[in-house]
């Protein structure tokens, strides 16, 4: 598919577009492995899925199957999710094994080659960022017989073009039989493939039920596009004829280098189309780069779920092609700039390249080999691009662009700076080339320079806070994460970069990556073949090239180990000092000095740390303190952390704030009790700590004196905590593990640091210190609730999958595990502020925690699952009727269950009610060692669910007495966790919690009230 | 107690039966209280107060909800439908009409819940079997024993709904096509 055919006229957005009322909600079952070879679906195949089970779930309207596609339509998104989770499908692994896209190749080896190294066929890799999607963005489709309506969130015309094409292919309709409505609002920053997937799912489901169906957009993981150079003679013999579909044969006389992709060279079809038509799924859109250096589509199965759009294909192709030109010129001993210009066909492209090279030469010093007087290496590189695109008027154009970049490399550190960019662009309407005024401009815009530098962006660090896509940010704020990786896009052009059709301005930045790579090679002799570039890769290559067989990595690690050991010792010595000085009070910081970005970052740190949960009294002002925290040592009241001068932290210097956060020492020198999790906050990076300080100081001050904490002797001796700190507190900030992925490190940072998960989820020793090692996150207690173990999620009594854990953290509910209640509900609230990628990172880290296995529990849970599905009552279970006769408590418990609980909790019968229907047989709390959480929920209900949509549970503390609760709990345990031993002395426990929980219950009720 | 926790009632924006309302209320107030006391919508009844009997049922975004155990704040941003929203005295909705025809009331206290629950069922499953209807109404309590008539009314409601057919169901392109 060469270039983009001009699309039909786009739907004119109607001024007031509203979604259809009475919209149903749909979700599709996603296979574990999605592969596409350019013509067929090659991923996991469905062996079986119990559709009848899903149909009997509450709220389900229909379950739709079409080849490998299975989707659920329900009256609410939650019901659809719950029904989908009940499917428990069995998949068959793809034939011939999975050929994952080479995303995990270490950059140091694969992405770099030194000039001296013999050149095996060059392989270029273009990495795309994953895409985040804010919750609640939906595409609605309503299919009728010969037409369909589509309601899209705000998105640019090229994305609409792609959706129209895809739905036309899926529904076998003419493109203009689709009526597209684009809802009003700011750009959502969605990846076009997120829209396309959601639209296609909604279309198939709507077609099946004949009613409007909404499907939420989903993000995707990062991907890598790999292209290898193919020798000119091998190309023709190697390429089967079918490849012409996605890569036309080069034009006669074209002499360009050619490339072979490891994956099909087109935009993959939507998942719904891949799955519903597994035997013939062709791309509707492909790269728009002209076949001067055509790409042969690969047939290696590719992990096709990745969001690789037209722009990514173009960017990868230009990067590979133009890097290869440069390499070929050098191999022939030619000057790369002159050679590249000479090889271009006559025409506007060549004229443009010539002009850009000449402009760049003006005022530039002559290129030189070796370090300049400043010890830095300088170099220049050229790259060009030629793309066929469709502009906003629907006209087809050819657009050329050319870049010359100058770079400066610090050879010791591998640090690269782009010092100058000269870029040019030329475009002509194809329909009337002879009369069209070609439009040429050559720019040296600082914005281009800045965006080129983005390509050199350091790899994501463990304390990077991705901006939340589309979360109320202004123009294209949500694009930045994507833009950082997909290309050096001039900020003005971001919105205009197109998928399917390239808006003209988007082409301007296509040559950036190759121009910089060529310039870096010119400066250093090192060829970077992976974009975006990593400084570390360049540094390693440079130091390896320096000749001496040093091993910088090992040496550095050795020293780092020594250094951290020393720091630990120093910290110990400092902490053991019993009396801490007061730090001087200041006038407080000038918060206007903090940028909006820093304060936003601080807000996210605060959300991840959920400061507000503990620092807000019931009904009180946020963060004004006074929340009573029950501990085994007595009640501790949280302090006012608003910037009030008298009662808050308004006059705290940053040094005082940081000391409190890292060492648990009040500004006045008092030791803080470790109920304040400074043991975790010590792990925060400096940048996060400063941002948090800025954020807190920028909040409105609230004058509120928190009650004084009075613990019984000996815990009242605050200086004693200094000794506690010496024993149990490690104040060193988080250091990432280089052997682990960025995602894992990010998750570890969030869990150990701001998230302070261990504060509740790790057991504590008799001195109240969190246990570490194998006991880390092995389960603890908080506010009268049991905090389950997190270190054996994958093999506990009810094993969690990654997706389930992600859903739980994102929504507060996992159908097969239960809802977030008690102190966990506010945590989910806090996490809701964080982007998807952070929640995924937490999931990755938690699922990888080492822990002991519990084989016995699994069997118990499986029995529980069966029990949950089996109908209750004498008719369904004669054995239970016997039990009931034998044990009056059991009969009493069953009666209470039928009257009070069954309406919302009984599987397979009863009405569909607002909120989820949590199945008790799959509830973690029923399989736990103690009944504490179950009793808490019965007594207090769930008044502050993690999300209103989950529904509410009334408190039964005033309706059921301790004996009734004991009977009910006994019945629930024996019915839903039949493999587990009965709990003992439940009535006593209920009485205790009823008394103790009264205060915390009221607090909990008021907590979320605004 | 609610009020002592929230001395300053928030002004909550609600959509009930297609109309926008602004109601000053403590966000934790049960939705039922706001509907009856502030909006004078007395279709939903107070029965058990624990979500067990169903007399208080309303629809939230088209799904049956027991309004006595749902705080009013949960209804923000959602569409609430009460019995009054299904039809008028002069022009009862299909489900209401069916209950009238089948004389499905003795004291009538439970009827709001019965009608709303049937309405919710028919919106997702326009042709329920009697078993499905029974299952849906299983936890709506009626002390008078009019269950037979209520089941008959539920089936009749499905019938009436099917008869009104095209008038109830829109088209993707609107009335024009």
From TrEMBL, chain A:
Ranges for domain Cytochrome c: 597-700, 742-850, 888-976
Record keywords: Heme, Iron, Metal-binding
Listed Gene3D superfamilies: Aldehyde oxidase/xanthine dehydrogenase, molybdopterin binding domain, Cytochrome c-like domain
Pfam families: Cytochrom_C, Cytochrome_CBB3
PROSITE patterns registered for this protein in UniProt: CYTC (PS51007)
GO molecular function, one term: metal ion binding
Transmembrane segments: none
Keyword Heme found: yes
UniProt-listed InterPro entries: AldOxase/xan_DH_Mopterin-bd_sf, Cyt_c-like_dom, Cyt_c-like_dom_sf, Cytochrome_c-type_DH
Region named Disordered: 240-263
Keyword Iron: yes
Name by which UniProt lists this protein: C-type cytochrome
From TrEMBL, chain B:
PROSITE patterns listed in its UniProt record: 2FE2S_FER_1 (PS00197), 2FE2S_FER_2 (PS51085)
Name this polypeptide is given: (2Fe-2S)-binding protein
Molecular function via GO: 2 iron, 2 sulfur cluster binding; metal ion binding; oxidoreductase activity
Family matches, as Gene3D superfamilies: 3.10.20.30, [2Fe-2S]-binding domain
Listed InterPro entries: 2Fe-2S-bd, 2Fe-2S-bd_dom_sf, 2Fe-2S_ferredoxin-like_sf, 2Fe-2S_ferredoxin-type, 2Fe2S_fd_BS, Beta-grasp_dom_sf, Diverse_Oxidoreductases
Keyword Oxidoreductase attributed: yes
Alphabetized UniProt keyword annotations: 2Fe-2S, Iron, Iron-sulfur, Metal-binding, Oxidoreductase
Keyword Oxidoreductase: yes
Organism: Verticiella sediminum
Highest taxon listed in the record's lineage: Bacteria
Domain 2Fe-2S ferredoxin-type: start-end pairs: 10-86
